[in-house]
Each structure stands twice: as structure tokens, then as C-alpha cells.
């Protein structure tokens, strides 16, 4: 069953930030047309329905073409995905390779490798999905992936504050999103008891009634990533990518994830953004779909 769509009126808003990371600048005025967006990220159960109906094989499960990765170690050119592994203690946060590991055999059914599964995570966001995997699901669903502007408009939900719920990350001590609790990357105390992803709709919805727009998993958008907002030309993007992903192109991710911590990745904010190559499949990236008004009428 597809996720319920929430109709949004569209409108004009101030996109970006100059208070945190340089790639979020400059702040600029953007207008988005009316659209509908899924209330929560696509879950494991929903992605499984798609795979059962189509026989789709994700990027992480496919053989890798060595020509796309010149100079790479042949031992790494096997199907798999990036898996987060906590360190044993404090480390230099400038080197992400200390907590990310390439794991052969990791894919959406086995997010952490062959010894893992999703048996008890049907209502968690699907992960280990590359950009083209998300786009393939969206086409099957009769929907599409959002642009960065659409995504940020939906996440802000009319707010102009640092977080969609205000300027306090935890108002009155209330945890508003699934983000890292503890000392990154070695001690995770859990967000409302969840270490890693959490079931969708566990945390408060925003003013538009959307859940997990912040935290839980990063989400793919169709906007190609640049190191800052481009005002000299419209953002590049493609709503219905197909075929093999291009490892030389970075897409813009939005929303932050359960791995975001203030001392390392203070990106659990609507304005935050991050680059990710189209072929990347990891344990903290998922997606949700949107629909144009004419398409939403047929939901």
C-alpha cells in the first residue's frame, strides 16, 4: 500500500541558511507550485511490495562495472553497500572512513550485511537504496521524487526558525526527531530507545502533518548538488532518472538522519543539505515521493 499523500498549497519561502554550513547559502526566495508529498518515508514493507511486483534488483545487488571506477581495488568491486560501524572510542571526526565500512552483500533486505535482516523492521524506512532505486519505486507508484526546493518547503511547513518546530532543538526537553543521542561516533544512547532507524511516525509531525522530515534517514532529491545554492541558473535535476546511476554526479540529500550529531553533523534542519553520489547505498539514506496535483487526484 502506498503512503498517504498530503496536499500542499505551494507558495513562496526563504530557502537556505547562513548560520551553519557554507553550502546552505545564500538565503534566497523560492516559489514552488502546489504538490502533494508522502506523509512518511517509504518503508521496508512498501519497498518489498514494489520488488515483489516488478522483480526489481537494486544497485547494491548488481554487479559493478569496473570501467566506472578506474583505479579502484578489484576486491571492492562487488555488490554491497556502505554500513555504519560505531568506533570503540573518540576519533578524529575529519575522517569519516573510521566509521563507514564497505560491506559486500549489504542491500535493502540485509542492510548491515549477510548476517542482518529486516524481519522486525517492516515499518522502518527502507535504506541501502541508491538514487535510481528510489526513482524506480517512484515511477512504479505513479509518483516522482521531490526537488530540493519542494522538500525544504515541505520540511519548513511555514516556519522561519532554525528547526521546523522552533529555535530550540529540544523544546521543554522533548526530542523532536530521530538524531544521534550521545557522543558521536562511539556512544549512541538511542532516540526514544531507537538506535539506528525508527518506525515511521514515531516522532512528532510538523505543521503540515508530515513525519520524519527531519532525522531518521536522509532523503534523495532530484536536484544536482553544488557547493552552494546556485542563483545564476535553475538547479539541474531530472524527475525520472532510469538506468545505471552515474557515480560522477552528486544528488542533494535533505533532512539529516539518525547519525546526525551537533558536534559532527548539525544537519537535522530544513535548510541543511548534503551531497551523495547517485550510486551510493548506505544504512542512513532513504526517500519519499511526491505527486503533482493531476497525479494526486488518482491516489
Write the layout of secondary structure elements.
Elements: E1 5-8, E2 11-15, E3 28-32, E4 35-38, H1 44-54, E5 80-84, E6 100-104, H2 131-140, H3 148-156, E7 182-183, E8 187-188, E9 218-224, E10 250-254, E11 273-277, E12 285-286, E13 290-291, H4 293-296
Structural class: alpha+beta
Q: What is the C-level CATH assignment?
A: Alpha Beta
CATH homologous superfamily identity: paralog of FGE (formylglycine-generating enzyme)
Count the DSSP helices.
Answer: 4
Roughly how many Å apart are the termini? Answer: 11 Å
CATH-defined fold name: paralog of FGE (formylglycine-generating enzyme)
Q: Compute the average pLDDT.
A: 94
Quaternary state reads single chain
Task: Record keyword descriptors for this entry.
single chain; 299 residues; alpha+beta; paralog of FGE (formylglycine-generating enzyme); three-stranded antiparallel β-sheet; 4 helices; 13 strands; 18% strand
Amino acid at each position: 500500500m502506498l503512503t498517504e499523500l498530503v496536499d500542499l498549497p505551494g507558495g513562496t519561502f526563504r530557502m537556505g541558511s547562513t548560520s551553519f554550513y557554507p553550502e546552505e547559502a545564500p538565503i534566497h526566495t523560492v516559489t514552488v507550485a502546489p504538490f502533494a508529498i508522502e506523509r512518511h518515508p517509504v518503508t521496508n514493507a512498501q519497498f518489498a511490495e514494489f520488488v515483489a511486483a516488478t522483480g526489481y534488483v537494486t544497485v547494491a545487488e548488481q554487479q559493478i562495472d569496473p570501467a566506472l571506477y578506474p583505479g579502484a581495488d578489484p576486491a571492492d568491486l562487488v555488490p554491497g553497500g556502505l554500513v555504519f560501524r560505531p568506533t570503540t572510542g573518540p576519533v578524529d571526526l575529519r575522517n569519516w572512513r573510521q566509521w563507514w565500512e564497505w560491506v559486500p552483500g549489504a542491500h535493502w533486505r540485509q542492510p548491515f550485511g549477510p548476517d542482518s535482516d529486516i524481519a522486525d523492521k517492516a515499518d522502518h524506512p527502507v535504506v541501502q537504496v541508491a538514487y535510481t532505486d528510489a526513482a524506480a519505486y517512484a515511477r512504479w507508484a505513479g509518483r516522482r521524487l521531490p526537488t530540493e526546493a519542494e522538500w525544504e518547503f515541505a520540511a519548513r511547513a511555514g516556519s522561519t526558525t532554525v528547526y521546523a518546530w522552533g529555535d530550540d532543538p529540544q523544546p521543554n526537553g522533548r526530542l523532536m526527531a530521530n538524531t544521534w543521542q550521545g557522543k558521536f561516533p562511539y556512544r549512541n544512547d538511542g532516540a526514544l530507545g531507537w538506535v539506528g532507524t525508527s518506525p515511521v511516525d514515531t516522532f512528532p509531525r510538523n505543521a503540515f502533518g508530515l513525519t520524519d522530515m527531519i532525522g531518521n534517514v536522509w532523503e534523495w532529491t532530484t536536484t544536482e548538488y553544488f557547493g552552494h545554492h546556485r542563483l545564476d541558473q535553475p538547479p539541474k535535476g531530472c524527475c525520472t532518472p532510469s538506468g545505471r546511476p552515474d557515480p560522477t554526479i552528486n544528488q542533494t540529500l535533505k533532512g539529516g538522519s539518525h547519525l546526525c550529531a551537533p558536534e559532527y553533523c548539525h544537519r537535522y534542519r530544513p535548510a541543511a543539505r548534503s551531497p551523495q553520489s547517485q550510486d551510493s547505498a548506505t544504512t542512513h539514506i532513504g526517500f519519499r515521493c511526491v505527486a503533482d496535483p493531476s497525479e494526486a487526484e488518482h491516489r
